[in-house]
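Practice problem: predict the structure.
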Amino acid sequence: MKYDNIFNLQGKVAVVAGGAGLIGKELVRGLAEMGAMVILADIDAEKGNIYVKRLTSLNLKASFKYLDITKEKSVINLINYIGKEYGRIDAWINCVYPKTKDWGVKFEYVSVKSWKKNVDMHLTGFFISCQKIAEYMKKQKRGSIINMASIYGMVGPDFSIYKDTKMTTPAAYSAIKGGIITFTKYLASYYGKYNVRVNCISPGGIYDRQPVKFVQNYNRKVPLKRMADKEDVVGAAIYLASDASRYVTGHNLVVDGGWTIV
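Answer:
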């Protein structure tokens, strides 16, 4: 094996579900810059098409396709289209973050209806897409599935970082992301014999113009003394999508600046 190009994605076809989002856009660009043909799949066609036009103007290989991971038919249609158009799907990243309008209210005010809706959209959406793409990759006898999880699927929240802000972290988020991590391990065990690898990435807090007080509180706690930039997640995704990780499955790759070690 030559090691000078094991991260190269030239000739590979990758899908980023939720590719029009904050992290998703960076994943699309990163995979494309490494040579992959990237399908930005998202429910927001306007944002998705605008971003794809920007990438193609830079001579990167990308296209937009509509996807609603909460709808089984939508996932099946996308997989069938890509299969016919490109003949393969090498990597699929679940980076979708669906949520209700009341997302972020304090725990004691969360309704059962809201809880059920959020768990159903997010966790069940990941189930649908994983089930369909894993079966496709099983037939082609190769593939990498990457699920976006979170440090809050691993450890309990430190609520002190929300002091003097109106922010909090939803209880459903912890339940969902914890479920994604263990579900990823289940899938890795189930599909390993078909050469289908399933891993997840657990980022720490991503800077997105949060209140100054929150950012200060967060930075004091994390060993690297800063929140993650959206670009910080890209290297982990490239690694898990490439041959560099060909013997890695069922792993939760933590990208948190050291948050979970203290």
